[in-house]
Design goal:
Number of strands: 0
Oligomer: single chain
Order of helices and strands: HH
Largest sheet: none
Number of helices: 2
Distance between the termini: 206 Å
């Protein structure tokens, strides 16, 4: 081969090497871009899956919290109902006791009134008896100052059964 042939071949080889080098860089760039694009797509897919998983977990947590709130509300309502029932029972007992005490108080008031009336009646009877006694004493004093015949006559006037 001639030296010009060698130069042409070397030049062609150099041009081919530069062309292939440039094609290799371009190919590598495309492969790298595809890998980057693929990695970005994979990252986006992973992020989307994580977001979906997070939203699912969030929904599950919210449902669990709502369920727990519902359970606590039902329990609180049950306890409140029990306390209301207990309070109502205590109120009924208290009302019954108050009614019983009112009845006893009324009964004692009536007894007290009856005793006061009886006491007043006894007092009046005592006063009446005292008055009658005084009258009798006066009459006896009057009779004591009389003669026997005058006394008999007086007793017969008042209707005494022993005037003989």
């Amino acid at each position: 081969m001639t030296p010009t042939g060698w130069i042409v071949a070397a030049a062609a080889f150099a041009v081919a090497a530069v062309v292939f080098f440039l094609l290799g860089i371009r190919y590598r760039k495309r492969v790298a871009e595809k890998e980057i694009s693929s990695a970005e797509e994979e990252a986006t897919r992973i992020i989307n899956e994580a977001i979906k998983a997070g939203e699912t977990k969030k929904r599950e947590s919210i449902l669990e919290a709502k369920d727990e709130i519902h359970k606590q509300r039902v329990e609180a309502d049950r306890e409140l109902k029990e306390r209301r029932n207990e309070t109502q029972q205590l109120e009924r007992r208290l009302i019954q006791r108050e009614e019983a005490l009112d009845k006893k108080s009324d009964m004692l008031d009536r007894k007290n009134d009856d005793l006061n009336r009886q006491l007043d009646a006894s007092q009046k009877e005592k006063e009446e008896l005292e008055r009658i006694k005084l009258e009798q004493v006066e009459k006896l004093e009057q009779i004591a100052s009389m003669t026997r015949d005058e006394a008999r006559e007086m007793l017969t006037l008042f209707g005494a059964p022993f005037a003989k």
